[in-house]
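quick one: magnesium ion bound model?
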Amino acid sequence: MGEIIAIASQKGGVGKTTTCVNLGTSFSILEKKTLIIDLDPQGSIAASFQFNNNKLENGVFQVFSENIPIVEAIYSVGLENLDVVPSYVYGEDEEIELFRLALNYNKLKHVLKPLKDYYDYILIDCPPSLGSLTLNALSAADSLLIPIQCEYYSIKALGKFLRTIENVGNKYNESLQFKGFLITMYDRRIKKSSQIEAELRYSFKNMVFETIIPRNSKLSEAPSTGKPVALFDISSIGAISYLQLADEILNYNKN
Amino acid sequence: MGEIIAIASQKGGVGKTTTCVNLGTSFSILEKKTLIIDLDPQGSIAASFQFNNNKLENGVFQVFSENIPIVEAIYSVGLENLDVVPSYVYGEDEEIELFRLALNYNKLKHVLKPLKDYYDYILIDCPPSLGSLTLNALSAADSLLIPIQCEYYSIKALGKFLRTIENVGNKYNESLQFKGFLITMYDRRIKKSSQIEAELRYSFKNMVFETIIPRNSKLSEAPSTGKPVALFDISSIGAISYLQLADEILNYNKN
Ligand SMILES: Nc1ncnc2c1ncn2[C@@H]1O[C@H](COP(=O)(O)OP(=O)(O)OP(=O)(O)O)[C@@H](O)[C@H]1O
Ligand SMILES: Nc1ncnc2c1ncn2[C@@H]1O[C@H](COP(=O)(O)OP(=O)(O)OP(=O)(O)O)[C@@H](O)[C@H]1O
Ligand SMILES: [Mg+2]
Ligand SMILES: [Mg+2]
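yep, here:
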């Protein structure tokens, strides 16, 4: 039975998409059948694998608006154990429409249920908001991973986000587990970063992943080549740290 | 007559809030009466000036939901020529409610109109989306400033965003001018960044500001002290570059 992990944060630019793409790829390298769902209208997941839009016909938008079966929106990306469902939201009218359709918070849960028998992991890339799409992801998910930068705005946004998770958990998804906080774009040279990391580990104890993702330019360059970082430069610290994260999650699940 | 500038981008984490806070402060140092409006439910503008929520009673949410006069949501931040309207969105229910209320795209335009006689500049901090709040900002604004990082996801998101601006311009706000692209968090050491910068200046010519905001840790540290960077460390490259940006905008407006 596969596990659905929502990768979410109201704060923008903390590495949600980068984590989805590279944790998903790492799971597939470790022979876990993995699906990535792009719930963010920005559509960065498809951009990471360089689909040209002519190849795509369906995505999350069509599943929500035309009720097409989700399997018709699943695309292979050339990696044996990795598939992707793009968001495929054309413009602002569709974005507003998708927001409205997603006010049925259980929609995604029903759509993904049958896929749990086929995939080991289903990762959901969320938009940077507390809107109806993120609430859909939190209702559908078995567990939640929150990427976080060691910077003031990212930490400050946490309180409200954790309150929302508790509310959604109580109302729509009692079995939602917390997978952990993932520290991303970590820069050892900035004194403040190690102070914030220490504070996070002190307040949240083992809710913070051991694995830290360092700031690494290979991670921001890889998507422009249409490849996840493990295929772009397997020896980079970016690729290694996401493989370590996948390993940490798989070991945790075993025990 | 004051100018309303929307600071917007669908991409998250590109420096919208940092630009609002520090461009706003720079305008006020150059003796322009300035107001910052926080249209992002994350509420990072209030967090930048360390309002404790008990001091605040109203914000954008109350203006939209209870129709309180906007002047009752304006707060001073201790700088002579700078005021702030916080977003004051408590949780996910209010965020959904605000999205719905903002489907009247002309709401903010009517609310801000009388303030243009009092302020020289009104800056609107937008959420990272193409939703109803950003459309409200684009209808209300005289001009638009788009912060952009020299990274693939940020550039890739541009096409769709520019299409939306054209649509909103035609439908709701024919007089919307484009102020420019502002390159933020620029890191000269990353080879790819200068390639992307050159490409941006080649494709968009003088639509890209001369001023570039470099990556500077003082900019990310300042908000944790409750001060804009100019008050936190006036000699930092972060403070200087935002003053240069304000100067570039003021000189452009003169000619
Ligand atoms: N560890 C890292 N090192 C260097 N750059 C990174 C790293 N992680 C992400 N990036 C870059 O930082 C930017 C933000 O990351 P990303 O787009 O994945 O965040 P996000 O949370 O998905 O953003 P949004 O809120 O817009 O959806 C991107 O340009 C990405 O390439
Ligand atoms: N020039 C800079 N140098 C260093 N850090 C910066 C710079 N500009 C912004 N930052 C930091 O980068 C992060 C993202 O910036 P900011 O929050 O202003 O972006 P945003 O576009 O408003 O994000 P969101 O999409 O979540 O609203 C913040 O932690 C901020 O402190
Ligand atoms: Mg993303
Ligand atoms: Mg912001």
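The CA atoms of residues 64 and 95 of chain B lie 12 Å apart.
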